[in-house]
Amino acid sequence: MNPFSMPVEASAHAGDIDALFFFITDVALALFLLITVVSLAFLWLYRRKGKATFTSPISHNNRLEITWTIIPTILVFVVFFWGFRSYLDMQVIETDAMEIKVTGKKWFWAFDYPNGVNSVNELVVPEGKPLKFLISSEDVIHSFYIPAFRTKMDAVPNRYTVVGTRPTKQGTFDIFCAEYCGKSHSEMIGKVRVVSTTEYNKWLEESESGGNISPAEFGAKLYVSKACATCHSVDGSANTGPTWKGIYGTKHKLADGREVLVDENYLRESMLDPNAKVVAGYQPVMPTYQGILKDKQIDALIAYIKSLK
Amino acid sequence: MTTTQALGQVVSELQEERNYLNYPKGIWSWLTTVDHKRIGLMYLFSVLFFFFVGGVFALLLRFELIAPGKNIVGPDTYNQLFTLHGAIMVFLFIIPGIPAALGNFVLPIMLGAKDVAFPRLNLLSFYVYIFGASFCLYSLVTGGVDTGWTFYTPYSVETNTNVISMTLGVFILGFSSIFTGMNFIVTIHRLRAPGMTWFNMPLFLWGIYSTSLIQVLATPVLAITLVLLILERVWGIGIFDPAMGGDPVLYQHFFWFYSHPAVYIMILPGMAIISELIATFSHKKIFGYTPIAFSSVAIALVSFIVWGHHMFTSGQSDLASMIFSFLTFLVGIPSGIKIFNWVATMYRGSLTFQAPMLYTHAFLALFTIGGLTGIFLGALSVDIHLHDTYFVVAHFHYVMMGGTTMAFLGGLHYWWPKMFGKMYNETWATVAAALIFIGFNVTFFPQFIMGAQGMPRRYYTYIDQYQSMHALSTYGTWILGVGFIIMAGYLTMSLINGKKAPKNPWLGLTLEWTTASPPPTENFLGNPRQLWGPYDYDKVLMDENGFVTFNPNAPKDDHHSNGSNGQAHKHEGKTATMKQTV
Question: Do A84 and B322 touch (CB under 8 A)?
Fold first, then answer.
């Protein structure tokens, strides 16, 4: 991280925002230096030597005061107009934009693509294609933030917020949640991968079916890409949710005192209706994966859990 | 010596030694006092206690952030730490810090009054503060709160932590704030000493007056908002619940409608103190009295219509965002004017560098940075990137801690001799001020950098690229901690065996320096008059013991200059060697 630069510019409007950022930095630096140098000079020149005496009766100077009112006023108006104009550029959604539905949940990001494909915490977009993010939340307020795109918009329950962008640089960049949303707020981190159009189409195909790998291997991929890893470990350690290691075929004690056998049906139910049977000692905080996981993907995850001995 | 003479001597000796601290005696006389000075001190020790508690939380949460992942506490505890740090510092330290603690002590004396206009209301406001604070402490010890100090819905409705007792505490604290504000407004209107006109009034009073206006007008909105939040939690009335047709963003509008003006409840008193300190320690007439006075009022008024700049990413309309951005820039201009005026005040002064002046300069440097970084956040498109990152955290700490807290510390050192009749050790005070200044910058400057790099706030853990800046920031808090420990040490020593303070240790000209240190119960022996302007350093010289010399060569006042009235003119010219005890 270079402390004297901004993050990499990966969207069409990032350059203009950075230009304004550095313009303000220059003006602020100049003003700060002016104030500091004059202050230090006065401190030295007018330090008291000997006893206190009567001092100058100067109490005002109209010309000076008008100057130091007008110049900052002009400067802030320049900054205001520049900031407003580049803000409007970001708000305008291009007519051929591809619409991606972004949903914030405690604590991951879900993305729905136009052709029905969805992904979790991994946003894959083609370079150069105008995008329209239609953002919402299923629980509390989150904020969809991609520093490399200089884009941020709150995800509010029962409401859509919209933001547009156009990725201009291939690479992998961070997605953060910028509005505090509880325990794992700081782990509500995703990645945006900006790729070429061919790679994008290939990814769409693979994420649907897993391509030609075994169900357990596909499940292992989904474990990461659908953000199961945020709350469930596979090494036996406790997290927000129970570990997956060796649970298949065992019995779970539930919060309401019942016992349940961990089988295919229980695992499926726990993905689609997670709060129906909550394991004792854990909070009912898991969001539903209804609509996010396709049957084939659920099968793959179950196969993966079975493989964890 | 006749009996009457002897009696007279005894009485005057008694009067000499009797002051508000030692008479009347007993703990009960303190708890039931209506003396603004005693109430001020009780406030002072309360806010210092909460500053300590909030500071310990800050050290803990910064320590947790020294490296990614778990270092000392888990995510739940961390979320409570930053919430409690914010809530305590805002509601229990900064808001009451200058007006209720220092203001209560000094405002009536500065006015030449015996007390505030409503002394019993003043005592009530203190007990309401303690009552509200105990609710906050209750929620702290019974499991804490994890919503952030802003209590955003719907999270604050869903979380199972003690939101109700904390918001109830803040609700009650609001009344304390309103009572103090009302009291000060009436006091300034009605109880100025003869000779003190509005434009002949120390600028501290203008600042406190503006603050009081906001306290009285804005605090009720916070109260309503918090009541709605409590009702939402208890009965699910649905006003902020989208499932029932409510709107969580409405909460943000309500909250910031109070809390943005509250930012100026916090900073205006700081500016008020700096106006006094810069004039006294430059020993020079304040530059631009009228602009400084009016800019306080202007800031207070405009502060009511900028709240939407906290919500540029909330999905509010573009038109609203544009208007709020524009108004936000407007509020910056009067702040800039103040800074230029303070710097210009030093021109051709006679500067000394005791601790209050050191804090004044810390304020000037840090508040300037805080103000200038506000320009980044006011600019719409840049704010979209910086919103809710560490850039914002750094910005408001430069304003709240670098600004208000530095001014508070300056004021505390400035009026300390007047409060306790004791001097503190100037050498140690210099060391502490230097450490606090350095520690502050090491703590918060790196936060600007990581904020610009995209580091979001309120993160328990973070990705590796931010680690060096986080570590640096944590080291800074240790320097700050050492500075404050030294300060606690020499201030305590000053109370135990400090040198006796003279009437007027800093050669100031405002009325509090014409009475004894510490002052008698009703502030002055007799009824004070304001005989010269608060900043007439070109005409009047008052020494440590309150002896006054007038300048025989003082130029005639032109009608623009402030701070002088007819009374002082009478002495001009012919009183070159005249000395007068005040």
Answer: yes
- Which residues have CB under 8 Å from A76's CB, separation 6+? B329, B332, B333, B375, B378
CA–CA distance, A154 with A140 (Å, rounded to integer):
10
User: Which position has the higher pLDDT, B571 or A33?
Assistant: A33
Dmax of chain A from CA atoms?
92
Alpha-carbon gap, residue A234 to A307, rounded angstroms: 10
- CA A234 from chain centre, in angstroms, equals 25
Tell whether the model's pLDDT for residue B516 goes beyond 50: yes
Whether A161 and B315 lie within 8 Å, measured CB to CB = yes
**What is the percentage of chain B residues whose pLDDT exceeds 70?**
92
Say how far apart CA B543 and CA B579 lie, in whole Å: 10
Of A53, A91, A187, the CB nearest to B318: A91
From the list A7, A77, A140, which residue is nearest B155 (CB)?
Answer: A140
Q: What is the pTM (predicted TM-score) of this model?
A: 0.89
Residues A128 and A242: their CA atoms lie apart, in Å, by 42
Residue A251: strand, helix, or coil: strand
B238 in contact with A, Cβ within 8 Å: no
Cα separation, B546 vs B537, in Å, equals 14
Distance, first Cα to last Cα, chain A:
41
Q: Distance (Å, rounded) from C-alpha A189 to C-alpha B203? A: 50
> Which of B283, B381, B450 is the closest to A83 by Cβ?
B381
Distance CA B240, CA B248 (A): 4
DSSP A46: T
Cis-peptide, bond into residue A107, ω within 30° of zero: yes
Query: Using CA atoms, how far apart are residues A118 and A124, in angstroms rounded to an integer?
Result: 10
Buried b or exposed e, range B533-562, using 16+ CB within 10 angstroms: bbbbbbbbbbeeebebbbbeebeebeeebb
Asked if A42 and B350 come within 8 Å (Cβ–Cβ), the reply is no
B365 touches chain A (CB under 8 A): yes
Identify the pLDDT of residue B204.
97
Cβ contacts of A91 on chain B, cutoff 8 Å: 318
Cα(B91)–Cα(B221) distance, integer angstroms = 15
pLDDT tens digits for range B27-61: 999 999 999 999 999 999 999 999 999 999 999 99
Residue B342 has pLDDT above 90, yes or no: yes
What pLDDT shows up at residue B311? 95
What letter would DSSP give residue B303?
A: G
Per-residue pLDDT tens for A146-156?
Answer: 999 999 999 99
Q: Which domains does chain A have, with CATH numbers?
A: 98-209 (2.60.40.420), 215-307 (1.10.760.10)
Q: Which residue has the tokens 């995209």?
A: B454
Contact (Cβ atoms closer than 8 angstroms) between residue B180 and residue B100:
yes
